[in-house]
Amino acid sequence: MSVKAFELVPAVERELLMGDKARINIECIECCGKHLYIGTNDCFIHHFLLEEVTSSKGKLSFLAQKLLHKYLGLKKPVAELRAASALERLIVLCDGVLFLVDMLTLETPSGAGGAKIRGVTTFCINENPVTGDPFCVEMGILSSKRRTVQIFMIYEDRVQLVKEVNTPEQPCAVSLDGYFLCLALTTQYMILNYNTGANHSEERKPIVKRIGREEFLLAAPGGLGMFANAEGVSQRAPVNWSESVMGAAVCFPYVVALDESFITVHSMLDQQLKQTLPFRDGHVLQDFEGKVILASTKAVYILVPLPLERQIQDLLASHRVEEALILTEGAQRNIPKEKFQILHKRILQQAGFIQFGQLQFLEAKEHFRKGQLDVRELISLYPLLLPSSSSFTRCHPPLHEFADLNHLAQGDQEKVQRCKKFLISYLGEVRSTEVANGCREDVDTALLKLYAEQDHESLLDLLASENFCVLADCVPWLEKYHKYFALGLLYHYHGQDSAALQLWIRVADGDLEDATRSDLFEYIIDFLCSCSNLDLVWKYTDWALRKNPTTGVQVFTKRIVRKNHPEPSPDDVVTYLTKHREALLLYLEHLVLERQIQKETFHTHLAVLYLERVQALLSETPVDEGKLLKARDRLQAMLRESNLYRVQYVLGKIKNCESLLLEQAILYGKLEEHDKALHVLVHELKDFSSAEAYCIWSSESRDSVYRQKLFHLLLGVYLDTQSRGASAGGGGEMEMAAVDLLNRHGEVFDAVRVLNILPERWSLQLLRPFLGRAVRASMHASRTSQIALGLARSENVQLLHDRRKKPIFVSDKKGCFMCHNTFSEPEVVCLPGGVPVHTHCVADRIQNSPSKKHLTNSSNHT
C-alpha cells in the first residue's frame, strides 16, 4: 500500500551545471555536508554549495551555488567520487587511476599525499573502520588486472597498502564493513572476512550496498532485494524490485531503488512497497549521510524524506494502524529516547481511537493501556459524563476526528450501546490503577452515570465501596433513572444520612418508585441499627414502629454494640415505647431474656405485659386456644425463672382470676408459701403432674434438704386428702397419686419418716419401687460417709506428720492458699504439706463438700 515517504526536489538545474553544452553528462556524485561534488563525462569535477530553504508553508527546497570546477586532464569520464572529510580530501577515480584532491581547491596535494594508484576498476570506503585512528580512511580497491581486493589506509600525507585478498573470480563491485568484504563477482555474490578468510557467496547481477553494521543489501534473482549479514544469513524478508534495477540506496527505514522508469520505495520494517515515483533517464542513485541523491544524465535531484511523524500521521489518517505502529517502532533508533517515548505514546493513543471508532474494542483497550491514555479523553466523547466541575480539556492537536459519541455512531443506537458497554468495562478496570490518578472524581462520576443509565448490577457495589463520585452531578442523574436507593447510598457516603433516610422512606411508603430492593424497610431498620447519630435514630424510629412494630423495634434490639458507638438508655427506650405495646413487649424480652439485664422494673414490666396479654386472650370470644397456650407458657416461664419481679404486685393482679390458678401457684412458690401453692395445684386444679413439677423447679437451685422438704409436704397433702376422702369414701385418686410420687422420686424422701406416716393397710408390693430406691440411696450415703471419714483421718495424720517435721510460720505478709488474703490473726488451719489457711476458709470448704452433704442425711440409714 502506498505512503508518501519522499518528495523529489530539484537540487542542481541543468543550466547551472553545463550551461549550453549539450553533450556533457553527469557520471557520478558525492555529497559531504553542504558540499556537493559532480563528476562529468568531460573529465571535470564541479563543486557546489547546497543551502536548504524552507518556505512559510514548510516546503523544503535547495539553493545551489557553484563554487569551483576543475579539469582533471585525463580526457575520460570521472567514474567515482568519495569524500574523506577527516582528511579534507576527495577521492577520485578516473580512467582507472585513483588519486586524491583537496576538497576545497580541487588541487592535487604535493608529496606522498598526491600518490596515484593505477589499474583500479572501482573502490569503496569502510564506514565501520577497524582502526581507531580518526585521521585515517580505510578503503577497498578492485584491480582491473588481478583477481584481488586491496585494502589501503589513506593518511593525510601517505597512502599505504595493508592487505591483499585473492578472489575466485574477477570482482566487479565491492562494499566494505569492518573486516567484511561484500563482493559482486562475475557470476556470484560473496561475503568475505579478509581477516579470517571465511566467505559466503550467492550468484546475481551486482548491486552491493552497505545498510548498517555488518549488514548489506544485494540484488538477488527474481527481482528481489535481499538483506544479508556478515554470516551470509538474511534476517529480513526480501523486497520485490523489478528485474531492471540499476541502483539502490538506504534512508532508514526505507530502501530506495532506481530502474529505467521509476523510483520505488520499500520499507525495511515490513518489506512492503510504500511509494512509486516516475523518473526517466535515471543514471545514478546514492545516499550520503542521510541524503538520497539521484541524477539523470542532465540534472541532479534529491529525495527529501518527509518527517517520520508526518508519514505516521498520514498512515493513521488512512486508518492503517498496524503500518503506522510498525513505522513508529522502527524509527526508535533515529529519535532521541525522550522524544520517541512521547511520540510513541501519542501514536498508540491515536491508534486506539481509530480502532475504537471501528468497534475493535479489545485492540483499542490494549493501545490505550500501552499509550497511557488520559482516560478523560475517552470519557469526553460521551456527552454529559464528565462532571461539570471537571477542568479537563482535550489534547491539542486532537487524538481523533470525533466530536462526540453521536458523531461517531451516526445515529446507530446499537453502536452507541456497544460503545457504552466498552466504556463501563474499561473504566471498571482502570479506576483502581495508576491510570485514574488525578482524575478519580471524573472516572467514578462517569462510571456511576453509565451504571444508572444501563441499569447495571455494579451500581450498588460502586456506592457501597470507596468512591469519588461528585454528589452535585450524580443526584439529578440518579433521580432521572429512578435510582433512589442508590442515591441514598451516595448521600450516606457523603455523610448526609438524614437525606438518605428521607429518600428511602419515601420509596418505602410508595411516594417514589424504585424496585432495586424489595426489602427496603428491613434495610432501613438495619441502617438505623448501625447509625451512630442517636438524634437521627429517635427521629425515624417512630415511622418504623408505625409501619411495623415487630420489625421496627429491631432498631433497638439489633443495634450493634461497639466501642465509640453511642447507645440509647434502656430506660429511655422503654419510656419511648410505651405507646407501642407490641414493640415494648419485644424490647423488654430483649433486655430480660437476651441481654439478661438484672433490673427489677424491667422484669416486673415484662411479667405484667405477659399477664395482660393472657388476660386479653381470655376475654376474647371465642378464645383462641393455640394463642392462649403459647401466651401462658411464656408467662409461666417468666414467673418461674425470674427472681427479680415484684411477686406481690403481680399476685395482686392475678389473685381473683380462676383461669390462672397454675400461675398463682408459681407466685405462692416465689413467696415460699408452698402449702398454698400445693393446695391450689392438688385441690383446685387436681393437676398432680404439675404439683410434682412444682417441687422440682422450686428446689432446682437449693440443697437436697430443701427438695426433700417440698416432696414431704406434697406427700402430706396427698395423705391428708386421702384420709379425709377415705372417711368420706372417695380417697382412691389421692392414694394413687401418693404411691406414684413415692415410686418415681423414692431417693428424695426420708424413708424412715415416710414409713411412719404411711397407712398400715398399704402393702409392701405396692411400695416395692420406692423401697428399692430408698435402700440403694441409704447404702450409697453410708459408703460415701465412710470414704469421707477415711479421707479426713488420712488428711489429719498427714498434717500431724508435717507439723512435727517443721514449724509453720504465719505473718501478715503471707497469704491464705484458698482465698489469697493475708493473715490478720494467729489462728490458722494447716492443709497437708504444711500450707496454712484461714479457719473460716476450711469451714466453708467442709460445709460445701459432697461428703458433708451426705453426712447430714445420715438419718436415712435403715
Can you put this structure into words, describing what you see?
- The protein is an alpha+beta fold and 862 residues long.
- Among the domains are: 6-176 and 242-306, Methylamine Dehydrogenase, Chain H; 806-853.
- Helices cover 43% and strands 21% of the residues.
- The strands form 8 sheets. It has a 4-stranded antiparallel beta sheet with strand order 1-28-27-26. Strands 2-3-4-5 form a 4-stranded antiparallel beta sheet, with no helix packed on it. A 4-stranded antiparallel beta sheet has the order 6-7-8-9, with no helix packed on it.
- A hairpin with a 3-residue loop joins strand 29 and strand 30.
- The radius of gyration is 57 Å and the shape is elongated.
- One of its GO terms (cellular component) is membrane.
- This is CNH domain-containing protein.
- InterPro entries: Clathrin_H-chain/VPS_repeat, CNH_dom, Vam6/VPS39/TRAP1, VPS39/TGF_beta_rcpt-assoc_1, VPS39/TGFA1_Znf.
- One of its GO terms (biological process) is endosomal vesicle fusion.
- It holds the Pfam family zf-Vps39_C.
